[in-house]
Amino acid sequence: MKHISILVPESVVLDSITAPRYLFTAVNDFLAAAGKPPMFDVHLVGLSKEVRLHGGLFSVHPDTLVSDVEKTDLILVPALTGDLRAALDLNKDFLPWMRAQHARGAEVASLCIGAFLLASSGLLDGKKCSTHWLFAHDFRRMFPAVTLVTDRIVTEERRIFTSGGANSYWNLLLYLVEKYTDRAMAILAAKFFAIEIDRNNQSAFMMFNGQKGHEDEPIRQAQTFIEDNVAEKIVVDDLAVRFAIGRRNFERRFKKATNNTPVEYIQRVKIEAAKKGLESGRKNVNEVMYDVGYSDVKTFRAVFKKVTGLSPAEYKNKYNLAAFTPHLETISPGS
To answer: What is the model's pTM?
Structure first.
């Protein structure tokens, strides 16, 4: 039987505690219904006997304290909320225990921005990691020794697992269920909880908001110029001349300031504008393509899919209200 320790930190997202507990205990129920023994011994583990959340609206009473857990097989680090630096300071006493358990063979998995607490332990240094795309800049700034992969929903490396943003942690939980049981059980759990299994890319959910929290004013002006001229064909050489910086130096400074090359930034800005056009308007894919400065369908489709994980047509069908409305109209008010 796998001993699972779900941490109960201060400043935690309550659902990211209750959801994994529910999932793993439900799998035990599925096994029992099939006449099989339970697989998971699930415990809520805290630093104190009571953790008050959301201004005292909720209280969680952990099953046990970290000091009483001598050995565990899997540690789940739930998502944090609020001021992240303050939350990390409040929960720093988890870190030595996490490191010690991992050294004894435990696996560790973070859900969403629980990756910040996991990274604080040092266990992610030199490894790939996913987290919520909205916090990517903060994560890179705070943990430069970790390789952040913002498009991934699930990462696994040397007994360390991480998940992407918000409810995508359900995909990591299913991944762990399959790892510890089998594919059939993961499919059963996916059907029971109505989760799309094997979804491992969160690119379609990402909203690009160029990193401007830096001190390089000419680069910030270049970012604004790109964003204000989304319909134009923008060339890196022209940007370098416009802001009186040598091409190589401009590229170096741009990458350092934004975590994107100038070409990547131009593409991301244009594709973000295209996404909005496909989501809210009635223009077809070609019309949106021209609106954001592309003239070659093949190039536009390739860049769009690289950024979002979907083709422009797939994205429009998935997120455009007009495309979705016919499905709604098939359901009459009296049905």
So the answer is: 0.69
pLDDT of residue 248: 94
Residue with tokens 């529910």: 22
> Which CATH number, 1.20.120.350, 1.10.10.10, 1.10.10.60, 3.20.20.140, labels domain 217-322?
1.10.10.60
How is residue 150 written in tokens?
A: 């913002």
CATH fold for the domain made of 2-202: Rossmann fold (3.40.50)
Residue 209's identity, in one-letter code, is N
**pLDDT at residue 210 in the model:** 74
Collect the ranges in the chain with pLDDT lower than 70.
198-207, 321-335
Predicted pLDDT of residue 334: 46
User: Could you tell me the residue ranges of all domains in the chain?
Assistant: 2-202, 217-322
CA gap 175, 182 in Å, rounded? 10
Give CA–CA dist 301/196, Å, rounded.
25
Task: Specify the pLDDT at position 200.
Answer: 64
Which residue do the tokens 């859900």 mark?
Answer: 111
